[in-house]
Amino acid sequence: MNDIITFWGTGDAMGVPRVYCDCEVCGEARSGGVNRRFRSAVSIDGEEGGFLIDCGPDWRSGMESQELRFVEHILITHAHFDHIGGLPEWADACRWLGRRGQLYAPQEVLDIINRQYPWLTGNLDVHSVDEGVNLAGWKVQGWKVFHGKNGYSYAYRLEKEGYIWAYCSDSIGLPEEQKIPLEGLDLLVLGTSFYKEHAEFHTRSVYDVTEALELLEEVKPKHTIFTHMSHDIDLSRDYGLPANVGFARTGQKILLKK
To answer: Which residues contact 129 (CB under 8 A, 6 or more apart)?
Structure first.
């Protein structure tokens, strides 16, 4: 098994640079530097096919960066704009190409998407993943996670040929029962918007890095990549992370192999 994760986007809901911001990180990102971040999404590709996790408003930029004209399978974590804003463009691409896309999400997420974009099913087939799903040979199981002031998201645990990893882009303060699927992982992809966020907890929606490191001490994945980063994270800095923990970079590829 030699599947590859590609980080199409590693940013939070606003992306980096933030259009209104003149901070050092946004300035560096504007000049095409390492901090340029599209909204979070990853693809998984291997001999048995591939799929994309999330389809935010930067979907088109991701497609162009990967030199793709069509993607058939997309799995959605939750129905916030930074994760579904590209769905109309995807559906329109399917229409022009005469091919049907396959959209996967928990049923309650599909219900919201259908209310927001009721025309999508003209070009997309929708599939509930409440009982799990197999995508490109991966056994995929989702579970609801606490998303702070923004309600909830879903995380996914994926297993293939003994390799287990999880994608949990939008969560904070997970209760004990929601941490259980994060145990025994070869890789955890976890959202961390700030290094240390000082806003009151009830106003927040995603782990900061300091909290995430505490979570890792509990669930103990072999490797961790942080994503969903705001302009607070500067990839040119050394944050002194453990050797098995790092920040995702736009376009980064990770080989999933035991």
So the answer is: 75, 104, 105, 106, 140, 142
Q: Are 28 and 54 in contact (CB under 8 A)?
A: no
pLDDT at 1: 80
Q: Which residues pair with 163 in a beta bridge?
A: 160
Q: What is the DSSP string of 40-61?
A: PEEEEEETTEEEEE---TTHHH
179: enclosing H helix or E strand: helix 176-179
Q: Which two tokens stand for residue 242?
A: 């453990």
Residue type, 258: K
Bridge partner residues of 157 (DSSP):
141, 166
pTM over 0.85? The answer is yes
pLDDT at 257: 84
DSSP per residue, 97-157: HT--EEEEE-HHHHHHHHHH-TTGGGTEEEEE-TT-EEETTEEEEEEEEE-GGG-EEEEEE
- What tokens does 214 get? 């505490």
Q: Tell me which H or E stretch contains 24.
A: helix 24-30
Q: What are phi and psi of 68, to 5 degrees?
A: -110, 150
